[in-house]
Amino acid sequence: MTIISATTTLLSRADGSAQVTSSDGTTLIASVSGPMEVRPREEQPLRAYLEVLVRPVVGVAGTRERLLESQLVSCLTPIIRLESYPRTCIQVNIQLLTHSRPIKTSRSSPPPPTILSTALNASILALIDASTALRTTVAATDITINKGRHTVVVDVFSGQLVFVDSEGEFTHEELEEALERGKKEGMVRVDDGGDVMVVDEGGGVGEEIRRVVEEKVQRDLRWKDGK
Amino acid sequence: MPREELLSPEGLRLDGRRWNNLRTLKLSLRTHPTSSGSALLTSGHTSILCLIHGPSEPSLRSKQQHDRCTITVDLTYAPFSGTDRKRRNRTDKRISELRSVIQRTFSRAVMTHLHPRSEITITLLVLSQDGGVLAGCINAATLALIDAGVPMWGYVAAVTVGWVPGQGGEGEEEGTPVLDVNNAEEGELGVLTLATMGDKGRVILGMLESRVRLEAVEGLMAVAVDSAGKVKDMMDEEVRRHGEAIARAAGVGS
Amino acid sequence: MPKELDPSTNEKNFILESLYAGERLDGRELDAFRPLELEFGEEYGLADVRLGKTRVIARVSAQVVQPFSDRPFDGIFTITTELGPMASPGFEVGRQTEAEVLLARLIEKSIRRSTALDTESLCIVAGQKCWQVRADVHFLNHDGNMVDAACIAVVAALQHFRRPDVSIEGETVTVHSMTERVPVPLSILHVPICEGDGGDEANVVTLIDATLQEEQLRDGDMTVTMNKHGEVCQISKAGGVPLDPIAMHRDMNLAFVKVKEITAFIAKRLKEDEEKRVKRDNLLESKAENER
To answer: Which residues are in the Exoribonuclease phosphorolytic domain (chain C) (predicted)?
Structure first.
């Protein structure tokens, strides 16, 4: 799975936003608002309340969206520095635009791709766009091996596993392989000193996220060039 | 329903009225003295009761506005108001739209700045419906607010006008407006509900829900503004009569 | 959730005084629309409308259902609108505010009640099977005039949508997949377009296509829905500054001009999209031939 296109800062009313199209045919918009006022019921004295809302393109949100919301919350909670914004709310909104679900033809074919990886990559871009304090950057990849499909989320710098969600039939070895491939896809290349190497072509999802962020920073800092 | 049935070749409507006849409009003030102000309006078979409470302390703190009073509208259709007995859901989108239309109209018509941090509740009960409910509600609310002694910028007077399209024949008129529609006409025709405020015929409310040609709208509006003026005069007459009756009872005036 | 902030006193005075002088903050004429952009998705029935910073997406979809028992010959057409916190942090999830009800009713009256979509053509087998067409409206960014943007999006998406073809043999109904048979466009009877007007304070200034700030400061508003044949589908002016009927009629005539412009714009974009699709399909075909 790769990111085909990604744009940031497209909604004026949100603090940060990103639209991402993945190679599996999913297009969605993520927006981030916050830190902002929190409902008294959800106020936490030492950290921000993280709220993730997912809306489908047709109909109203149901169980599928609720599952996605809870998965995203568990992915993002360790990434965002919530303790930097006590008594506030950080809201991540995901609006699905297109989602092609291929019809399952036979029992042996792997389950259809989920939206989780695209939603997570878009959320990360939107959070960066909103200048939310993050511990690190993560990248999500969908990996299909035989009848199993795995969504692997890794830290782009250290390659540490953040989250994995697997579906279908798979062996322990296949899962190991998926994790290994996810790590390779998600990580950015670093030189010996630990600095990120600039690579223009190729690379996995991690590299693509890095490129999008780099473009965004260049655009944001255009004023410094004095042109 | 074909046009001939709604408007006969002689120009008579289903209930025998001509195009420019209003139905009998009966207005009475202070029908329910326990409220701050009340009015009962009967227009043909449409019957609406309006009660005013306030200005008083807002029921919710969120309704308090520091520089003006809040107008709250409560609109209920009695289950027996239509031909079929039917209990309407309070969250009905149509009713909540009507409610907010009335609320927005009177928020403008009442001198809200004179009663800051207060609330005026307009309770409307539709006892019987036979077309022109919104117009009836507006008129009843105006009278009840006057009875309650709430200062307003002017009379808000509403009417409905329907448009009977022509057959499109050679040399024939494009259509005819019909004033003050009843239920049967309301279901078939494009109906404009229009309310004016004050003497100058300025439009404070205009609602049209069906397709009508742009040229026809001009005619509809002209008829509606003119008739709203007449309704205003009838309301004024009733208010003066009511006022005089009170003055007589108190032993003042003529 | 945070409340929508009202403009400050300075902002308010500045905007109002400029308006009285005939100037708008974004340099538009009083009767000018913001730049309108319309894009269609890969799939049929997805329209993405941008009106200045306001952005709305409409998605039309169809499925076969049983018709309502009291209307056996009619298909079903529903419009769902939900203002989510993405459009503005002030909108809360799950709770319908009054503004939301009014907006939903306005869109519904403009498109559904004016019978823009011929629901009779959606009937497959009377009383048993019909198409249910639904339009989901998603508000992405709220910078005023959501009604117009939503109406344009729904109307464009309806015209862009193709439903799968069906064939009936006795009692059995076959729904053909998109690739099997050329999908059929919906029959649209007329194209309603809304026009939001905002009036401002004592000596009335009339604006078309108000931004959020202008909407917050306005003293009244009127929405007129019309189609290009000069038929008024809906007028809605609830309260607000009392207007002279002659001025109202002048505004409607102005709205008619804009409606014709917008309808032509949608038609142009639909044609461009169609051409793009044909070109791409031809390219795919020729590629396939070459490979053979």
So the answer is: 33-164, 207-255
